[in-house]
Write a structure and sequence with these properties.
This protein has helices at 2-25, 40-48, 66-69, 83-87, 103-111, 125-138, 142-156, 187-194, 212-218, 227-232, 236-240, 249-253, 261-265, 271-284, and strands at residues 35-37, 55-58, 93-97, 115-119, 167-173, 179-182, 198-199, 207-209, 222-226, 256-259. Strands 5, 6, 7, 8, 9 and 10 form a 6-stranded mixed sheet that branches. A 4-stranded parallel sheet has the order 2-1-3-4, sandwiched between helices. Helices cover 45% and strands 15% of the residues. The chain contains 14 helices and 10 strands. The protein has 2 domains: 35-156, Rossmann fold, CATH 3.40.50; 167-284, Rossmann fold, CATH 3.40.50.1980.
């Protein structure tokens, strides 16, 4: 009887060891990460970190790199993006910046068990580096993120010290019927200052409509626009037709600079290059 009992105990012990061994050897399957990016700067950094294969959806500002982003599902402008349109892409994560993504959208995504990751943002060189560091850490690509930050410093070596501080007016245009100027504490206000210029308008924040009186009073030495804005005005000649522009130093000297929107206002990895381009234009002014 004792032999039978010992035999049963041995069989049970062997079976138990075998079961534990099987659980140890079989790895837990990893769930592929599927990301929706709600900002062009975040999308650009994801591409620079070589993690773009995880992107399943982007917003309308995600325009760089142009060919690569063109084949990713575009959800449009953040203000019009719904939880349903995002969920239709079956993502595991949604990435955006704090204070940009609507609280209601965040709540809806979280209720659907989608992880929402929001990063900090500050419109400065150090702020760009912090954003890159935060995103690269999330992707476990710290070393790659450091290289991107170092490249910004290399790019900024092309900056020159200006003899004076030219007045720059940024005009947001969507045709002659929609013309706005950038006030204090806007992204463009910060870019103008970092490039060595001075915002031609002050006394208000955010954007306000451009009027003939305001553009004349601003006396800009340079008019800065997005490429899309210049195109909506049919180029530089169309810009000269805006009431008041011909009476400004910029209008008289035809001093205009048109740049890609994300490139000049995104505060991303190419900020150094964008600042050098503006800085060189300012240095060339008469």
């Amino acid at each position: 009887m004792k032999k039978i009992i010992f035999t049963l105990i041995a069989v049970i012990a062997l079976a138990s060891c075998g079961s534990k061994s099987e659980k140890t050897d079989v790895a837990e399957p990893e769930v592929a990460r599927k990301i929706v990016s709600l900002n062009g700067t975040i999308t650009e950094i994801i591409f620079d970190l070589q993690e773009s294969d995880e992107l399943v959806g982007i917003d309308v500002t995600s325009s760089y790199p142009e060919k690569e982003t063109a084949v990713i599902a575009n959800l449009g402008h953040l203000s019009g993006i719904t939880a349903e349109s995002i969920l239709g892409l079956a993502p595991t994560h949604v990435l955006g910046f704090k204070d940009e993504v609507p609280a209601e959208l965040i709540a809806q995504l979280k209720a659907a068990k989608i992880e929402v990751v929001l990063f900090e943002r500050e419109y400065s060189i150090s702020g760009v580096k912090s954003t890159i560091a935060e995103i690269s850490k999330w992707f476990n690509k710290t070393t790659e993120g450091e290289k991107l930050a170092n490249q910004i410093d290399e790019d900024l070596k092309g900056m020159v010290t200006l003899k004076s501080q030219p007045h720059v007016l940024f005009v947001y245009a969507r045709g002659v019927g929609m013309l706005m100027v950038a006030g204090e504490n806007t992204q463009m206000d910060k870019m103008i200052s970092l490039a060595g210029g001075k915002n031609a308008v002050s006394g208000f924040e955010d954007f306000k409509p451009l009027t003939p009186e305001s553009v004349i009073a601003a006396k800009p030495d340079l008019l800065l626009l997005f490429n899309s804005g210049t195109e909506s005005l049919s180029g530089g000649e169309g810009l000269l037709q805006i009431p008041g522009v011909k009476m400004t130093p910029a209008g008289i000297n035809k001093s205009f600079l048109s740049m890609d929107g994300l490139y000049v206002s995104g505060f991303g990895p190419r900020i150094g290059k964008a600042l050098v381009e503006i800085n060189q234009k300012l240095n060339e002014l008469k």
